[in-house]
């Protein structure tokens, strides 16, 4: 049994971790921290939980919080895990950070996109970037993993094989993506109220969404990224465009994807454009791509559940690797459909 | 390994069975039948499936279809399993019927509510009624189980303990329930088109919905039942009203529910009125109840996922019992939330 | 031109009034007050507004606020219009109160259901109850109208003709209703967040919703009322149950409705159970009813848009009557469908 | 009174025309044709209709169908109005074609994108392209108007002023758009079933959607267009990308839009990215644009209601122009919000 702590247990990502850990054979949710809901029953915070887990109280983080813990999931607002990662790693614990603090290799990128200097730049190199399909060996041997962002996960899974195969010009990349509302987190605001979102499709964060930096880093690309909010709770679809590096066979984009993901348990290559619903509630991803000879462009699409492959699911997949477990333990590739 | 066949594998209930069996430790989906989609890959029929299961072809039912099979799930239109249940039972197989054919004890009830005589009345007594919390022993020893309907499951779980405790007058029962659209099945029609349902709340089947008969049978009650279609995919909430049998302590209804479901892994008694979303994608159920001294009435509420506890989930729970497995194998009580 | 002021212009009801007044031939929105958004452009508060109206600034209420005004719509939290109604009426202005302050005839009812004594009980008798189909003459001659609540409007329209015709026992009334989320108002809270509501159907306010009092008053009935929140923005469906006063012809309930609403421009009697979507965005209402000889009960259904016939639309209909205008001016009976 | 006929009165566009004509001061819906629903009451076909209009029967088209008619709206599947436009124009009637038959100037384009030769190429030049903001004079003097497609309307309104101002390279245009499900029409199919679409965001028609041709024609551009289906009933958002023709002031894109649409009653230029919901149920459009100096690209966004400004609303706007009426008669710019 791997004794697991969650920091930020009361948010949506915390809740999804708890739902998944309730069925995980090896990871045991042992200490659950969340300052704003400290003292409340988990069942009051996450109404989906039941049984004994619902009766556990959320704790306030304290000095002895991590005694006896093997693994820490940190699902905190950006800037917070920078403050505590050093102490966690010094204790020899494994750390999976679901926030944005350790995704960017270059502290200058963090400063530029997040508007403040990084508080623990020396620790960055100790984190593997948490997409197992692309960094499996690094994750296996890492003490710490930085979760890929939700938009970057959908984008990078769809685009990286084509960059690697030399099929597209990475400096021409446009990423147009839509997210379900859970991607905006649990904080209550008018922009994510039901009445605002129902029947609404809109872009936000024009030109300057922070996930741009991750995409550029992992793809070695220049990216113009436009996120949209769609009237659904879960799911991200990234529709990505790039200039073809050269004329190619119409099957080349799909072939590159199939080669990259052969044997992967969670990434599926589809002939048809995927729906976010195919992977809702799961750790699955679906990608496809097309070459448009008429305009000389390639279109690449990736669909995930932002809370699954885009957050809690993928980080359990990483934790499984870090502890030498079956990579698929506690995870499903099948979406809850319809 | 229990070799399992599904008849009607291409509908929504079939898809949910497949999703759940993909993670079940003991039940192995071995033969998958579905006439209208025979010959197609499962992945084309159920886009949520992935990996090897997606590549399996749907078969047309044939004489040797059940050779080597231990367990049959029949998810067929009503009237169909009457025709084949006899042969299945004669072969000694266990049978879980997800349709309506063997729910009603009295063939005359079937004839009255379904408009045609029952074709195999002698078999009815061999079926246990598939709500484990109320008929666990019968299910354990049965060769065949008839799935409770989705509306009856939500209703009976909320109401039965109060009938048994003598708190309500069963002849005064009104059941007002709302269902997600997946309850209407996969057949394509204008009434379940997105444009029709989005933003719509409406009643249907006024006075004569067939699930009334099941509720009356299991509760020993007279029931006026009004189903509604809500703009959501999954979930049933039954809001039930009855005259109080006598003045009672305000806590009496909740106490009766807590006593009935103490220790149950899938049924939770809640102080607050439950949302269908708390159990979406799971086999969980949540019930609550109130006594209104002002009007002398009791209100009882039950929430389930119509495809989970209302169909595929509950029938896997029954199959687990029939084969002496852990009753919770392959099932979650935690909803996919948000 | 009737110079019109709106108090509470920044809420959803205020926005709907503005949308409708933008096309009204006679009512001119002249002064727009809203304390929390004072100083902001209307277009920033209500993104649906465009053109000149979007550039008008929301004002803070002041002593001279109503100089030159003919008509006041007050869309304020309950308790607020009690404080100012006296001054408005003394100035000789006409007043339409969209809140709950003047709906209940008996100040003791207000105290019981709203938990505080009424601050202006002497004014109550000067308000007509704002359902034109039932109180047209009183509204025509009134200086002030109290808007019927949204749930009461849907309920009373469906039930009142059957009470009047002696078809049902008013002391047996059960009202089970579902509302879209805009009925909860514009205040931001987790219970009305998109992620909470999408895929959710749940009851709330068990036994003690304040609209019960209005229903009982207008119907001369004892009412057990259970409201539900449905995953849609607009719309209310009330499904109402009562014991039949006596056996009756199956057509009797529909006949009573047809007789009551013959020639009404906004209330339609339907053979089929109505959807909220049929009247979404409009001032229409649809009602139907059934007698169930088997259980001796009558089911009555009413559908409206809670912001239309349930609030802003119906109150413009009342204002039209108060000023001797065409009762339908500026209003549509046709829903925005699909 | 302008006596108006609708061909294809039973589809969604037909229903929206009827809803709008019910409140139009000058256009009178006189003859309503729809072969598949011929003989049915309009109220049975369009449940949003009420009053006298609901009692009108849908007619089968016949030889004398257009006697006494002044104006024809044709909302037919593509290929159908080619067969009858000649006869309608010869009678001297005005014709507004809501289908795709007369949008493309070059019959070869029609053949290429629609897969069959045009049956009436000589008539094409008699049709004005139906976006009043760009072709007002031509529409005023035309006998016939071809409705712009829904995606092209949203796209062209957002992009054309920047092409005209020389700010973007038209050969680099990428259009990524999302539509509500009503854009797929009323035919019933699994892809537009509620259970398929709810919680789903997906692309379709990769590389070859027919609206591409219209965008290229009107913008003088090369366009790669990817449409998506969003889980909402109404609305289109087009997010468009092009290479900047040259470095520019950050305000230049918005300035070009403001200059183009100054004084327009239905097109609004917004600083913030628009939501489809702002214009739902209306004839409004909202556009915005940004220059991204970092990547050298321009992003342009346009939001409309696909049934409003994208179909029925815009075509009533055109008809108003064709008959010399107030261009805004019977139309609202304000969306039904929330």
TrEMBL record, chains A, B, C, D:
In this protein, the active site sits at 150
Under Enzyme Commission nomenclature, its number is 1.2.1.38
Keyword list (alphabetical) reads: Amino-acid biosynthesis, Arginine biosynthesis, Cytoplasm, NADP, Oxidoreductase
Q: Superkingdom, according to UniProt?
A: Bacteria
Q: What class of enzyme is it?
A: oxidoreductase
Q: What does this protein do?
A: Catalyzes the NADPH-dependent reduction of N-acetyl-5-glutamyl phosphate to yield N-acetyl-L-glutamate 5-semialdehyde.
| Positions of the Semialdehyde dehydrogenase NAD-binding domain | 3-142
Primary location group: cytoplasm
Q: Which HAMAP family match?
A: ArgC_type1 (MF_00150)
List the subcellular locations.
Cytoplasm
Metabolic or biological pathway, per its Swiss-Prot or TrEMBL entry: Amino-acid biosynthesis; L-arginine biosynthesis; N(2)-acetyl-L-ornithine from L-glutamate: step 3/4
Q: Which family does it belong to?
A: Belongs to the NAGSA dehydrogenase family. Type 1 subfamily.
The protein's name in its UniProt record: N-acetyl-gamma-glutamyl-phosphate reductase
Q: Which InterPro entries match?
A: AGPR, AGPR_AS, AGPR_dimerisation_dom, AGPR_type-1, NAD(P)-bd_dom_sf, Semialdehyde_DH_NAD-bd
Q: Name one Pfam family in it.
A: Semialdhyde_dh
The species is Sphingomonas rosea
Task: Output the SMART domains linked to this UniProt entry.
Answer: Semialdhyde_dh
Q: Which reaction does it catalyse?
A: N-acetyl-L-glutamate 5-semialdehyde + phosphate + NADP(+) = N-acetyl-L-glutamyl 5-phosphate + NADPH + H(+)
Q: Which CDD domains match?
A: AGPR_1_C, AGPR_1_N
């Amino acid at each position: 049994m791997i004794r697991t702590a969650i920091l930020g247990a009361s948010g949506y990502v915390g809740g999804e971790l708890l739902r998944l850990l309730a069925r995980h054979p090896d990871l045991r949710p042992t200490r659950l921290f969340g300052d704003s809901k400290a003292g409340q029953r988990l069942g009051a915070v996450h109404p989906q939980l039941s049984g004994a887990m619902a009766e556990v109280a959320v704790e306030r983080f304290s000095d002895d919080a991590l005694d006896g813990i093997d693994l820490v999931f940190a699902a905190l607002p950006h800037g917070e895990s920078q403050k505590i990662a050093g102490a966690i790693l010094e204790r020899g614990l494994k750390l999976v950070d679901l926030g944005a603090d350790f995704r960017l290799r270059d502290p200058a990128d963090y400063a530029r996109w997040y508007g403040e200097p990084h508080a623990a730049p020396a620790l960055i190199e100790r984190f593997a970037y948490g997409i197992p399909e692309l960094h499996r060996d690094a994750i296996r041997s890492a003490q710490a993993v930085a979760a890929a962002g939700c938009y970057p996960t959908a984008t990078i899974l769809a685009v990286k094989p084509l960059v690697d195969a030399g099929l597209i010009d990475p400096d021409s990349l446009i990423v147009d993506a839509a997210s379900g509302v859970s991607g905006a987190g649990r904080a209550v605001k008018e922009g994510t109220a039901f009445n605002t979102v129902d029947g609404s499709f809109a872009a936000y964060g024009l030109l300057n969404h922070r996930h741009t930096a991750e995409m550029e880093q992992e793809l070695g690309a220049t990216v113009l990224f436009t996120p949209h909010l769609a009237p659904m709770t879960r799911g991200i679809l990234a529709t990505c465009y790039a200039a073809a590096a050269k004329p190619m066979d119409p099957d080349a984009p799909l072939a590159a994807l199939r080669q990259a993901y052969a044997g992967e348990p969670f990434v599926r290559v589809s002939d048809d454009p995927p729906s976010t619903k195919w992977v809702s509630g799961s750790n699955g991803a679906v990608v496809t791509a097309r070459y448009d000879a008429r305009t000389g462009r390639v279109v690449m699409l990736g669909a995930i559940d932002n809370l699954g492959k885009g957050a809690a699911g993928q980080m359990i997949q990483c934790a499984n690797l870090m502890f030498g477990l079956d990579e698929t333990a506690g995870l499903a590739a099948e979406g809850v459909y319809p």
